[in-house]
From TrEMBL, chain A:
<keyword id="KW-0694">RNA-binding</keyword>
<keyword id="KW-0378">Hydrolase</keyword>
<dbReference type="InterPro" id="IPR029060">
    <property type="entry name" value="PIN-like_dom_sf"/>
</dbReference>
<dbReference type="InterPro" id="IPR050180">
    <property type="entry name" value="RNR_Ribonuclease"/>
</dbReference>
<feature type="compositionally biased region" description="Polar residues">
    <location>
        <begin position="967"/>
        <end position="976"/>
    </location>
</feature>
<dbReference type="Pfam" id="PF00773">
    <property type="entry name" value="RNB"/>
</dbReference>
<feature type="domain" description="PIN">
    <location>
        <begin position="91"/>
        <end position="209"/>
    </location>
</feature>
<dbReference type="Pfam" id="PF13638">
    <property type="entry name" value="PIN_4"/>
</dbReference>
<comment type="similarity">
    <text>Belongs to the RNR ribonuclease family.</text>
</comment>
TrEMBL record, chain B:
<keyword id="KW-0694">RNA-binding</keyword>
<feature type="domain" description="Exoribonuclease phosphorolytic">
    <location>
        <begin position="21"/>
        <end position="152"/>
    </location>
</feature>
<comment type="subunit">
    <text>Component of the RNA exosome core complex (Exo-9), composed of EXOSC1, EXOSC2, EXOSC3, EXOSC4, EXOSC5, EXOSC6, EXOSC7, EXOSC8 and EXOSC9; within the complex interacts with EXOSC2, EXOSC7 and EXOSC9. The catalytically inactive RNA exosome core complex (Exo-9) associates with the catalytic subunit EXOSC10/RRP6. Exo-9 may associate with DIS3 to form the nucleolar exosome complex, or DIS3L to form the cytoplasmic exosome complex.</text>
</comment>
<keyword id="KW-0963">Cytoplasm</keyword>
<dbReference type="InterPro" id="IPR036345">
    <property type="entry name" value="ExoRNase_PH_dom2_sf"/>
</dbReference>
<dbReference type="Pfam" id="PF01138">
    <property type="entry name" value="RNase_PH"/>
</dbReference>
<dbReference type="GO" id="GO:0016075">
    <property type="term" value="P:rRNA catabolic process"/>
</dbReference>
<dbReference type="GO" id="GO:0000177">
    <property type="term" value="C:cytoplasmic exosome (RNase complex)"/>
</dbReference>
<dbReference type="InterPro" id="IPR001247">
    <property type="entry name" value="ExoRNase_PH_dom1"/>
</dbReference>
Length: 987, 245
């Protein structure tokens, strides 16, 4: 509530046990009265009842005084926590609010057990930080941690009134102390051989003194953690909260002060400040953009430049910005800058760098520019990265470099720098005082050696927020019991399609087969085509732990050598996988078509199938091509192939886009799992055959569920990109004398088809790659919350995901909707709540995006491993983008993209001339334009083990004054041109 | 700031009650001498006063008279000082008219109106302080007042509300719980026969949960019945003791 002004007298009313419904609990009634200000500004008096009870258990396992034990583990009878020399006896811990907020990382350590969390504390935490609250709740729910939350505010003996002149913080502190005292007395009454003590942990000096006066054992967190005998390393994980003492240490103030929240809110209301999400630039640590919230058309995106203007904001924070005067506006710089200074307080250097940004720019490139005046909400999370050890040997303070370049470096204090060097670690930010160039943080966890495959995989999963813990027992308990077989009950709403000649076509090595097909001729001469999708929703019932876990994961994540399943393996690779020659439950979509691939009838049914063959794309292709084979499966495949070709043509005539993105496949060593060869993925006719039918099924299902549930169908849309997105594509094509029309998807598709250059066969693919980059992200949405359903890339008015329920949660929801629509299953509350569905879509979109990033990061890491073994190579490359001081090139052979810098440290800078109109970059006398063919030298730059990266240096054309390896050590061993590859954009 | 937690993980509601527990109920009968029946009830901070006149001859237009039973005439009003911001109109607004109708419906179902053809029974209820469950407090107060007036009823009519938060039905909602916008069911029950006199629900609730919520509300009604019954017995004892003197 707003301004809790006064809490006036509380009237304690009759103590004679009021009757409380069915329970006979004795309770006392008191009322809390306070004044509060309403939104409109009026002051009103609020009276709330407050019942005090004496049936709230203390949570100690050995306690016989308290009646019913609460559900859950509670506190151990003999607390066997870590041995501490401060308090050798058995004890429970009772932290205060600030301790919980700041030292949550320590409390989460398995060593810390038997902690009492008071309701007062829990409520304060809840109001101040939702993520910490969630973590505390998780700990309370974890039976091994023995955390117990005591509802002290409703306990007859621990409830206290706010006194006259006491503010609510002091009152809460007193309430905590009263509870500690009560616990100590209560535990004494247990008359055990050894008395259990409750230890109050607080970092607040005043509070601690008061506690000691009242005879409570109180320690600061630091004192207690340091006293733990067996765990000296825990000390590193203490958050360093800057006391006033530390701030005087260095007088230099780097940053302007943050305004208080009340001022920010006023400013935002009156329009002086704008509220938005802060997004740091990946390439330039001195630049960021703020995405302004709300629907205002102008000033949607504000540029922030320079350390002082960035003012300690960290990526993803919600900030308030003030716009600068128009003459101070700047253009987004195309410079790539990395923060690599060793001296941490080197400010002159920064100014010099900032000046680079301010180099003269075209007037019309200027964008709204602002400065951060305050932080509305921090969005800090633990960050993965590595330690850059201080040069001073004995130093305890070190800088930590996060793996994500958008996050600033963090200063941490640790005694184990030597062991942590070269390791991937996790660090959390504690604060960022005004006098510090870098934020302060503390060490959380060590992940392992940098460069190890396991460690790096862990890092990229963590960095992309991919839930990858093994499935919990609770989740696994909802799996069907093995051996599993189809029962009579399962058959109730199912059709038996086991006699059909169904087969599946998938990439080699695929174990989670979620789709199978069949095609047969009917007596009337028409064709019957069926798409059979694994019936995952049969096994995953709504609302149970298994369902919740899969909803949280959202999608299966495929990394180069690992798969992070969305559902447990028993389902993904066995019961739901439509393997050959076993009976499997399926959800079938069956069409009757004529030979022109026109749909005459569509029906959906749950079914049982028995796949006759699981083929790879190559095998299926071989069967179709070899004239000698005429078995059922092959005829079925040929029929499908024929129809697919017609369908595809129809789709393309409708304006569906065929886009391209380079994709590679690693050949792994079977034992070490090291990549030994890189190959671009090859697509066969059969790929597109399967895809075509999946598209058709998705569209048919989308239509069906939308017809049935117009308000809560889960659909997928692909918005048309704004025309400005295509600027770069049009410009690039123009430089090659080609015209790309972008007014409609169809025009775009046609002009892309025509854009061929006989002298430059790869140009078309490059154009398609570039087009892909112009596209918007396709997203899931709930039909009741949106009215634009169009799928731009597929040129379909409606679309959804139905065909991969094993690896996408969206499909499971679509299955449930469809099942309800055909009367094969019953609905449940969450399914028909469009707000819940919209929330779910939000999570799914986020998980899909993150999964994609994780996948890319995994490919990048394996590419590095590959070049590590391969050494230096020279390869042909094409320029994809031109930047101010660099060019981005694509090496078709490896599908690898990289940046070639023209400025190097400690070397004379070449003369650079950037023209943003074309765009082109002239280095000395050589001009680079988009799509120019160049030759680059590729090598793994391991000089900086913090960030190993692929380094590319230009070999051809030669630039005077640039060092070019005269003799490339090895010329690429394989020389055949890569096959032209096409891939449709991510549908 | 996070919104108020209506039901904590430990199972306590914002005011310290458990999910199925009622607020403290206190009631008195025969508070006014001039009316035929009267009663005062407190359910937590919700306070209501009910007064009954009749059965008596039809007043006003005689044409409204029913030839086979008594007419139940109700009026619901809220004191201008009953809410934290002063109310302008004590009665006659849409909400009060709706409440009036609900009350009428409830008591027509409970009072044995066929015993008094061509006559009228007036029930006036006023909310003195509103803190959630206004309708229920009114019904409970009116029941006591009707009993006080000695008008024969099929059974007590007991009312209670129930809500649904975090998959748990909550009995007897307070104002903050009502204001949170969740589903809310008001149930008026004839407890011994378990007949429903009135059932009202607002905002959406999935039908799967409806049964649980009604179950919780009817349990609460029965608990209210026990309290009211005790109040009536105490009152009768007191009155007979006085007469015996």
């Amino acid at each position: 509530m707003l301004g809790n002004v006064v809490r006036v007298a509380a009237v304690a009313a009759s103590g004679g046990g009021g009757r409380l419904g069915s329970s006979a609990a004795g309770a006392m009634l008191t009322s809390r009265t306070f004044l509060k200000r309403t939104r409109a500004g009026a002051v009103v008096k609020v009276v709330r009842e407050h019942y005090l009870r004496d049936d709230i258990p203390c949570g100690a396992a050995a306690c016989r005084l308290c009646g019913a034990r609460p559900a859950g583990a509670g506190l151990e009878a003999r607390p066997a926590g870590a041995a501490s020399h401060l308090c050798p006896g058995p004890h429970y811990l009772l932290p205060d609010t600030n301790l919980l907020l700041h030292q949550i990382d320590i409390l989460e350590d398995p060593v810390i057990k038997n902690v009492i969390v008071l309701q007062t504390v829990l409520q304060e935490v809840r109001n101040r930080s939702a993520p910490v609250y969630k973590r505390v709740r998780d700990m309370i729910a974890n039976p091994e941690k023995h955390f117990y939350s005591f509802t002290n505010e409703h306990h007859r003996e621990t409830y206290i009134e706010q006194e006259q002149g006491e503010n609510s913080n002091d009152r809460n502190d007193r309430a905590i102390r009263v509870a500690v005292k009560w616990y100590n007395e209560h535990l004494k009454k247990m008359k055990n051989e050894e008395n259990i003590q409750v230890i109050f942990l607080t970092n607040d000096r005043n509070n601690k003194e008061k506690a000691l006066e009242e005879g409570i054992t109180a320690y600061t967190c630091e004192e207690y953690i340091k006293s733990l005998m067996a765990n000296p390393d825990l000390v590193d994980r203490l958050a360093c909260i800057s006391d006033e003492g530390k701030e005087i240490e260095s007088g230099k103030i780097f940053f302007p002060e943050h305004l208080p929240l009340s001022k920010l809110q006023q400013g935002i209301k009156s329009g002086i400040y704008l509220q938005g999400t802060y997004r740091a630039s990946r390439d330039n640590y001195l630049e960021a953009t703020v995405w302004v919230h709300g629907d205002a058309e102008e000033n949607k995106e504000i540029i922030i430049q320079g350390l002082k203007h960035l003012n300690r904001a960290v990526h993803e924070d919600i900030v308030a910005v003030e716009l600068l005067a128009k003459d101070e506006w700047v253009a987004p710089s195309s410079v790539v800058l990395q923060d690599d200074s060793q001296n941490e307080d080197d400010i002159e250097n920064e100014e010099e760098k900032e000046n680079i940004l301010k180099a003269s720019v075209n007037k019309n490139m200027l964008r709204p520019t602002g400065k951060v005046v305050g932080i509305i909400k921090r969005n800090w999370r633990p960050f993965c990265g590595m330690l850059s050890k201080s040069q001073i040997k004995e130093a305890r303070r070190h800088l930590f470099t996060p793996a994500d370049r958008r996050i600033p470096r963090i200063r941490i204090e640790t005694r184990q720098a030597d062991t942590l060097e070269g390791q991937r670690i996790i660090v959390a930010i504690d604060g960022w005082p005004r006098n510090s160039r870098y934020p302060n943080g503390h060490f959380v966890k060590n992940l392992g050696n940098a460069g190890d495959k396991e460690t790096e995989t862990e890092v990229l999963l963590l960095e992309h927020d991919v839930p990858h813990q093994p499935f919990s027992q609770a989740v696994l308990s909802f799996l069907p019991k093995m051996p599993w077989s189809i029962t009579e009950k399962d058959m109730k709403y199912r059709e038996d399609l086991r006699q059909l000649c169904v087969c599946s076509v998938d990439p080699p090595g695929c174990t989670d087969i979620d789709d199978a097909l069949h095609c047969r001729e009917l007596e009337n001469g028409n064709l019957e085509v069926g798409v059979h999708i694994a019936d995952v929703s049969h096994f995953i019932r709504p609302g149970n732990a298994l369902d919740e876990e899969s909803a949280k994961r959202g999608t299966t994540v495929y990394l180069c050598e690992k798969r992070i399943d969305m559902v447990p393996e028993l389902l993904s690779s066995n019961l739901c996988s439509l393997r050959s020659n076993v009976d499997r439950l399926a959800f079938s979509c069956i069409w009757e078509m004529n030979h022109k691939a026109e749909i005459l009838k569509t029906r959906f049914t749950k079914s049982v199938i028995n796949s006759k063959a699981s083929l790879t794309y190559a095998e299926a292709q071989m069967r179709i091509d070899s004239a000698g084979m005429n078995d059922d499966v092959t005829t079925s495949l040929r029929g499908l192939n024929k129809l697919a070709k017609i369908l595809k043509k129809k789709r393309i005539d409708n304006g569906a886009l065929t886009l391209s993105s380079p994709e590679v496949r690693f050949h792994m060593d079977s034992e070490t799992h090291d990549p030994i060869d890189l190959q671009t993925k090859e697509l066969k006719e059969t790929n597109s055959m399967v895809e075509e039918f999946m598209l058709l099924a998705n569209i048919s299902v989308a239509q069906k569920i939308y017809d049935e549930f117009s308000e809560f169908a889960l659909l997928r849309k692909h918005p048309a990109p704004p025309p400005s997105n295509y600027d770069i594509l049009v410009k690039a094509a123009k430089s090659k004398n080609l015209e790309i029309k972008t007014d409609s998807a169809k025009a775009l598709a046609e002009s892309l088809d025509k854009a061929e250059s006989p002298a430059f066969p790869y140009l078309n693919t490059l154009l398609r790659i570039l087009t892909t980059r112009c596209m918007m992200q396709a997203v899931y949405f709930c039909s009741g919350m949106d009215n634009d359903f169009h799928h731009y890339g597929l040129a379909s008015p409606i679309y959804t995901h139905f065909t991969s329920p094993i690896r996408r949660y969206a499909d499971i929801i679509v299955h449930r909707l469809l099942a309800v629509a055909i009367g094969a299953d019953s609905t449940y509350p969450e399914l028909t709540d469009k707000h819940k569905l919209a929330d779910l879509c939000k999570n799914l979109n986020y998980r899909h995006k993150m999964a994609q990033y994780a996948q890319r990061a995994s490919v990048a890491f394996h590419t590095q491993l590959f070049f590590k073994t391969k050494g230096e190579v020279n390869e042909d490359a094409y320029i994809l983008f031109v930047r101010k001081n660099a060019i981005v090139v694509l090496i078709p052979k490896y599908g690898l993209e990289g940046t070639v810098f023209f400025e190097e440290k400690d070397k004379t800078k070449p003369r650079l001339d950037y023209n943003s109109e074309v765009p082109s970059l002239t280095v000395e006398d050589t001009t680079f334009r988009i799509f120019d063919k160049v030759k680059v030298n590729i090598m793994l730059d391991a000089s900086n083990i913090q960030h190993q990266k692929i380094r590319m240096v230009l070999v051809e054309p030669k630039i005077p004054g640039k060092d070019v390896p005269a003799n490339p050590t090895t010329e690429a061993s394989v020389s055949n041109e890569p096959e032209k590859k096409k891939k449709k954009l991510q549908k | 700031m996070a919104a108020l937690e209506l039901l904590s993980d430990e199972g306590y509601r914002a005011d310290g009650r458990r999910a199925a527990e009622l607020r403290k109920v206190r009631a008195r009968m025969g508070v006014f001498a001039q009316a035929d029946g009267s009663a005062y009830i407190e359910q937590g901070n919700t306070k209501a006063l009910a007064v009954v006149y009749g059965p008596h001859e039809m007043r006003g237009s005689r044409s409204k008279a029913l030839h086979d039973r008594a007419l139940v005439n109700c009026q619901y009003s809220m004191a201008t000082f009953s809410t934290s911001e002063r109310k302008r109109r004590p009665h006659g607004d849409r909400k009060s008219s709706e409440m009036t109708l609900h009350l009428k419906q409830t008591f027509e179902a409970a009072i044995l109106t066929q015993l008094y053809p061509r006559s009228q029974i007036d029930i006036y209820v006023q909310i003195l302080q509103a803190d959630g469950g206004n309708y229920c407090a009114c019904v409970n107060a009116a029941t006591l007042a009707v009993i006080d007036a000695g008008i024969p009823m099929r059974d007590y009519v007991c009312a209670s509300s129930a809500g649904f938060v975090e998959d748990t039905p909550l009995a007897d909602l307070s104002y903050i719980e009502e204001a949170s916008g969740g589903p809310q069911v008001a149930l008026a029950l004839l407890p011994t026969s378990e007949q429903i006199a009135l059932l009202e629900m607002n905002s959406r609730l999935h039908e799967d949960h409806l049964e649980e919520v009604i179950e919780a509300a009817s349990k609460a009604c029965k608990a209210v019945h026990a309290v009211l019954d005790q109040v009536v017995r105490d009152h009768v004892q007191e009155v007979t003791a006085l007469l015996g003197d």
